[in-house]
Model the fold of this input.
Amino acid sequence: MSSTQTPEQQADQGHDNHPTPRQYVNIALVLAVLTALEVSTYFFEFGAIAIPLLVVLMVVKFLYVAGWFMHLKFDSPIYSRLMYTGLAFALVLYAVMAVVTLFDHAPMI
Amino acid sequence: MATDVATTTLGIDHRKLGMWTFLGSEFLFFGAFVSAYLLYLDTTAGGPGVEIFDIPFTSISSFVLLMSSLTMVLAHHAHTKGDLRRMRLWILATAGQGAVFLGGQVFEFNVFFREGLELSTSPFATSFYILTGFHGLHVFVGILLLGSLYVLSLTGKIKANQDVKTEMIGLYWHFVDIIWVVIFTVVYLIPEIAVLD
Done:
């Protein structure tokens, strides 16, 4: 990569491997189907698999939007690391709060 | 001016790096509110709980927000091709869908309020309104950013070769969408299904 290039020129080069509008529409169709499947868990009895299914669908939708629409699939992995770092911190925060709450409600011995 | 923009020592656009750092911190920001909501899920203090949610209504507004990500990415794609007229068209469509989502949220809050779920009714109510309210605020800011982008491109202040600006606002918009993907499942669907079971 030439050092005389501006970031905008570099960004333009980076768009060469970006998806086409047709691919974006296909991804949106997949997301629409996944959303319909999510909503169907409210109307139909899925039993014990309902909640695990919803979590899986949420993760798949998340990855599709981040990977294709936010271009993480095609851009520098540094951006993905920044996103996953934020997510990891959020999960740790939830885990810590859950443990603290658990001990708060534990019966006194 | 393009020459005023410096790359980072990582060889990537510093504006995108800055935006992703900001978005990474935003995940933690919303993570805190989602955590609080989940931990206070059962603390309704005799007031309404998750049974108050109207899943079919929220499903439609969720779908509208999800599809706004498609129009946003199409706006960015049009800008990369230098087609500012089409870019503006998709920007308007995105902002319109955002406004529909926001209108739905205002309507939903009004219904909940009338049914007795006020901000101070219970820890559940507070954590719900804070989480979804902050998300709504992000959507509102996104609409303002899209409006600015539209006006600036119309007045010639954003040019055909400055598509990174559309990409920045697009990243923010997709983030708002991705957070709602989590909220719709974790805040609305899973607790509602758990109650039905």
In short: DSSP finds five helices and no strands in chain B. Chain B touches chain A through 66 residues (CB under 8 Å).
